Amino acid sequence: MDEMKIHSILMDALKAANAKCDSDGHTIWIEAGGGRTLAVCVSECAPDDYGVGDEEKRTYSVSLHATFAGSFDVRASSESEAEEIVRDRFTAEDIKVSDLELDKTEVNATEVD
Question: What secondary structure, in 3-state letters, does 14-52 show?
Answer without folding.
Answer: HHHCCCCEEECCCEEEEEEECCEEEEEECCCCCCCCCCC
